[in-house]
Specification:
By secondary structure, this protein is mainly alpha-helical. It has eight helices and two strands; from the N terminus they run H-H-H-H-H-H-H-E-E-H. A two-stranded antiparallel sheet has the order 1-2.
């Protein structure tokens, strides 16, 4: 009888222990379910955040492209506005300096209509006229005449060429080419500039009439007539005009 009671007691203890273990497992399973549910929710949140971030990144890329395009457009617009303002300033300055625009009207018409040869010849005439030495058969201007030449007038003529050729021709364009060639007074440098300007062929200088009077000509091809002294050497690049212009830039 005692053994039987002890056995029953032991069984009850085992049942109680197993019941307790079962209950703990239940609670553990519930915790796992809750944790798993939390993990699923967090996964969904993370996926939503990932989608949002991806969308935001795409939008930022589009915005960046739009911003770049806007900056480029504004830069081009600013350049055009600056060019227009600068051109108008030169016109006002030339009037203030008593160089009538009527003296430049032919040059402006030739440039506007892309008549480059006529514009080049007219540039030569205008420069001689402003200098007070208007003689078509004159052997150009000497060094002293060029040094005394009104810089404002030279800048105005330069701006007209730049404006109507969209920067392809002009004294400033020639100056830029000279700088790229080393910006020295050496004869080799000057000949290199002439090659870039298209004033030489087969290592020989070209006569003015042999130049390319179109926009297909090399950059800085004009003005050229003011460099031609008609002394048998053809169009010769000199630093007189460039130096006068650069000293005022």
């Amino acid at each position: 009888l005692c053994n039987e009671k002890e056995q029953n007691l032991s069984e009850r203890k085992n049942i109680a222990f197993l019941t307790k273990e079962r209950d703990q497992l239940k609670f553990g399973m519930q915790d796992l379910k809750i944790s798993y549910s939390d993990l699923l929710q967090k996964k969904e949140i993370l996926e939503e955040e990932k989608d949002s971030l991806h969308t935001a990144f795409q939008n930022s890329e589009f915005k960046l492209l739009d911003l770049k395009q806007e900056i480029q457009e504004l830069t081009q617009l600013k350049k055009k506005e600056a060019s227009s303002i600068q051109y108008n300033q030169w016109k006002e300055t030339i009037l203030q300096k008593a160089y009538s625009l009527s003296e430049l009207s032919k040059l402006i018409d030739f440039l506007r209509n892309k008549k480059w040869k006529d514009a080049d010849e007219e540039t030569h005439k205008v420069i001689l006229k402003i200098s007070g030495s208007f003689h078509q058969d004159k052997d150009g201007l000497d060094e002293v005449s060029i040094q005394r030449f009104p810089v404002t007038a030279l800048q105005t003529v330069d701006q007209l060429w730049l404006h109507y050729s969209q920067g392809h021709f002009g004294f400033t364009t020639q100056a830029d080419i000279w700088k790229k060639c080393g910006a020295t007074e050496a004869e080799t440098t000057l000949q290199q500039v002439e090659n870039h300007l298209g004033w030489r062929r087969d290592d020989q200088r070209l006569w003015h009439e042999k130049l390319n009077f179109s926009l297909d000509a090399p950059q800085g091809h004009f003005p050229a007539r003011v460099y031609d002294k008609w002394n048998g050497k053809g169009v010769v690049f000199r630093l007189d005009w460039i130096s006068l212009l650069l000293n005022e830039i």
